[in-house]
Amino acid sequence: MITTTQLKHIRSLQMKKFRDRHHQFVAEGEKIVQELIASDFADVVSVYATVDWIEEMEAHIPENVDKVTVSPKQLERISSLKSPNRVLAVVNKPQHTPPAAFAKDDLILILENLQDPGNLGTIIRTADWFGVRHIFCSPDTADLYNPKVIQASMGSFLRTRLYYTDILTFIKNNSSQIPVYAASTGGESLHNMSFTLPAAIVIGNESKGLSEKILKAAQKKISIPSGKESQQFEVAESLNAAMAAGILMACIRSKTAAT
Amino acid sequence: MITTTQLKHIRSLQMKKFRDRHHQFVAEGEKIVQELIASDFADVVSVYATVDWIEEMEAHIPENVDKVTVSPKQLERISSLKSPNRVLAVVNKPQHTPPAAFAKDDLILILENLQDPGNLGTIIRTADWFGVRHIFCSPDTADLYNPKVIQASMGSFLRTRLYYTDILTFIKNNSSQIPVYAASTGGESLHNMSFTLPAAIVIGNESKGLSEKILKAAQKKISIPSGKESQQFEVAESLNAAMAAGILMACIRSKTAAT
Predict the structure, then answer these.
(1) Checking CA distances to B205, which of A68, A249, B61, B214 falls within 20 to 30 Å?
(2) Is the pLDDT of residue A236 over 80?
(3) Would you give the DSSP letter of residue A156?
(4) Other Cβ atoms closer than 10 A to A54
(5) Does A128 contact B at CB distance below 8 Å?
(6) Does residue A228 have a pLDDT over 80?
(7) What are phi and psi of A31, to 5 degrees?
(8) What is the pTM of this model?
(9) Can you tell me the ipTM of this complex?
């Protein structure tokens, strides 16, 4: 049985303020919770699940995890999803520290003030596909533990590390060792560039792009050519930020693939 | 002043059934409505706007367009947006016919049963960026005139033509003249392929991918290599459908760019 205190606590974790205060977040749905339990990403504190889910999964849930049975109706009340999916987990936020040095095949993402949780989730999922392990975010970027980010990342947040940090300092400290490519419509066409790894890609805010100080700190500006350049017709004003990140990761991985 | 009949009519157009019955759709927001009025995409029947918008725009609105003044409160009642933006237009659905032949630099998209309106909107915006002018959709693909598609496309629906049609027949009729690349995780790596235009890319449903009959009809299967192949770590199970479409468009445009 779920108590009123538990119910209030879980619902409060939909807000960043309370996630920060309690150092906890919520993950939902069978697939994500199973992956969470099996991974070393973070400690699951408790699961709130239907009787049948707990019976099925009993053997796979560590003993130190609280198991609370809830009715489908109660699950609806604590869920942030339109269609709750049998289980919800309360998880301690992990403390990940960036690596001391990057590996020779590392491709790194840096995000400045990315606002849309759906975009951040899509970027994490795509980064995971392309083997991007480290994402450095300015503190004003959307929160990884926003339920929408967790859902949109489709479990990929378990394999990708996000660090909220002063990205300007990070770029200044690292740009002598690794090339930093700032995505900007005024940059050089990515198709004309060659790349070495490790390297970093910087993606800016959905409407404002990258700030002047970040553009200045990055050595290189990189652009994704539109149909306009070769074909002289009117085109969209810009690409979606997640799409731009995905295309840059795909092209750089392709151009640096071991043959 | 808006009448109750008008209010009901506009709200009914949020549903495909009524858009189909009345051959009309709704577009919202200053930027999209201004672009619509200036474009030859379709006929605007009426605009419902705040007094100040109508005063500002009077000179740019053709005479045959009905202009109805609404209060911000009324606009909220007829809008499908969380934050309505001064104007909403009721528009006659256009009848676009596919070109008799494709141009020598045409890159074409074919979508099978793409379900998410946000994905379809993002695909249209990205297609527009890469100069993709023609998108052929299976009849069970999300509706172009769904308000979420219109919003996510960011005005790009005005420059891209969508045709809802029997895509299997379309592929069979065209695959002797143009190469048809079906996106499939089992396909050949796009990085190892060379391309000629005109060409077509086929993208499948978000969870099921492409159907067997479409995969069979397309001559070539194409895949986007993940980090896994070169780096042996676990990665995301798949890319988002819109992301896959965007990466394929970017790479094929890059490999066929006139130099």
Answers:
(1) A249
(2) no
(3) G
(4) 18
(5) yes
(6) no
(7) -65, -50
(8) 0.92
(9) 0.90
Q: Which tens digit of pLDDT belongs to each residue from A78-94?
A: 999 988 999 999 999 99
For residue B155, list chain A residues with Cβ-Cβ distance below 8 A. 236
A1 touching B (Cβ < 8 Å): no
Instruction: Return the pLDDT at A131.
Output: 93
Residues 150-169 of A with CB under 8 A from B: 154-156, 159
User: Coil, strand or helix: which one is B163?
Assistant: strand
Q: Which chain A residues are within 8 Å of B154, Cβ to Cβ? A: 236-237
B212 touches chain A (CB under 8 A): no
Reading the block at residue B252, the tokens are: 């094929």
pLDDT at residue A232, rounded to an integer: 47
- Cβ atoms of A87 and A2 closer than 8 Å: no
Cross-chain CB nearest to A131 (options B224, B227, B246): B227
Task: State whether residue A31 sits within 8 Å of chain B by CB.
Answer: no
Residues in chain B within 8 Å Cβ distance of A253: 225, 227, 230
Look at the block and give the residue holding tokens 């190892």: B192
In this predicted structure, the answer to whether residue A67 has a pLDDT above a threshold of 50 is: yes
Residue type (1 letter), A153 = S
B121 touches chain A (CB under 8 A): no
Q: Which domains does chain B have, with CATH numbers?
A: 4-92 (3.30.1330.30), 107-255 (3.40.1280.10)
Residue pair B90/B45 in contact by the 8 Å Cβ criterion: yes
